[in-house]
């Protein structure tokens, strides 16, 4: 795989939270750094991933996270680090539950409940991976698509993300899809190898899940990410991990938007590994405001 140790190291650094279990009231307290970024709010995937790592630090033994349900309450300030408070709701025979609040200036910017499960035997089935998907190595990189543009956001998309993203469907960075449909697909993986700690891989997948999850909403209406006056923000996020995975190996991210209404759009996604196994499912609703609809 192509090696870009710098961008992957940025991801690993933000997942390495400061704090320990001695700093607590009814919460375990951790602090996560916010890397420099070309936006006026913290990337939602960062807050999700750091919240996952904070919750994971409070769970004993070999119980991986299998689900989360969270709400983005306030935009995060990209010039400040984030404090995470983890409340231990329950530790049962098979499951553990945690509530995580991500704080800035004493106010929560994200509220999340997570669940962990002891590995167990049970029924097995999953949706099939789509057929006839082109190989990721045959597709252009984001750098090839927008790296030539003299714009800080384009440079971030092309060179500063810790994930290599290859679009199966027509990219909508600069122009809307000429035949609008509410579906998208990308291949993605980290730009270099990750440690073997599978909790890091689950957190990193949550980070990456926020990149293009609402893209099918834009695609369905022939819109591009650079549409003048477009205002888009994540409202909530739900995610389920079904099987172990590695984010430094190619994963196919298949996306769909079942609905948009009232200045909100819903996106759903499925992650498949190269063997065709469904490894995770995600859903998110976002606020999508456009100037042509006036104030809403």
From TrEMBL:
One of its GO terms (cellular component) is cytosol. It catalyses: a fatty acyl-CoA + H2O = a fatty acid + CoA + H(+). InterPro entries: Acyl-CoA_hotdog (IPR042171), Acyl_CoA_thio (IPR003703), HotDog_dom_sf (IPR029069), TesB_ACOT8-like_N (IPR049449), TesB_C (IPR025652). PANTHER family: ACYL-COA THIOESTERASE (PTHR11066), ACYL-COENZYME A THIOESTERASE 8 (PTHR11066:SF34). Keywords: Hydrolase, Lipid metabolism. It comes from the Bacteria. Homotetramer. This is Acyl-CoA thioesterase 2. The lineage of its organism: Bacteria, Bacillati, Actinomycetota, Actinomycetes, Micrococcales. Belongs to the C/M/P thioester hydrolase family. Residues 41-117 form the Acyl-CoA thioesterase-like N-terminal HotDog domain. GO terms for biological process: acyl-CoA metabolic process; fatty acid catabolic process. It holds the Pfam family 4HBT_3. Residues 159-287 form the Acyl-CoA thioesterase 2 C-terminal domain. GO terms for molecular function: fatty acyl-CoA hydrolase activity.
């Amino acid at each position: 795989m192509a090696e870009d140790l710098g961008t992957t190291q940025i991801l690993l650094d933000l997942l390495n939270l400061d704090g320990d279990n001695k700093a607590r009231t009814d919460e375990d307290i951790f602090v996560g750094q916010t890397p420099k970024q070309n936006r006026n709010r913290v990337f939602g995937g960062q807050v999700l991933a750091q919240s996952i790592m904070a919750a994971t630090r409070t769970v004993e033994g070999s119980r991986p996270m299998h689900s989360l349900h969270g709400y983005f309450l306030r935009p995060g300030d990209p010039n400040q680090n984030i404090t995470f408070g983890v409340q231990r709701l329950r530790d049962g025979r098979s499951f553990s539950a945690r509530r995580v609040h991500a704080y800035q200036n004493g106010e929560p910017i994200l509220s999340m409940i997570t669940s962990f499960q002891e590995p167990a035997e049970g029924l097995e089935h999953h949706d099939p991976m789509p057929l006839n998907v082109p190989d990721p190595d045959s597709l252009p990189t984001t750098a090839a698509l927008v790296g030539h543009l003299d714009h800080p956001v384009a440079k971030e998309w092309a060179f500063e993300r810790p994930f290599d993203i290859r679009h199966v469907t027509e990219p909508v960075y600069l122009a809307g899809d000429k035949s609008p449909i509410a579906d998208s697909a990308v291949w993605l993986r980290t730009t270099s190898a990750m440690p073997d700690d599978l909790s890091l891989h689950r957190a990193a997948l949550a980070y990456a899940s926020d990149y293009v999850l609402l893209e099918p909403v834009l695609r369905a209406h022939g819109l591009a990410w650079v549409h003048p006056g477009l205002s888009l923000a994540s409202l909530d996020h739900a995610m389920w991990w079904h099987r172990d995975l590695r984010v430094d190996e190619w994963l196919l991210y298949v996306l769909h938007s079942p609905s948009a209404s009232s200045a909100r759009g819903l996106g759903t996604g499925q992650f498949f590994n190269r063997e065709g196994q469904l490894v995770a499912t995600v859903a998110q609703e976002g606020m999508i405001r456009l100037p042509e609809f006036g104030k809403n």
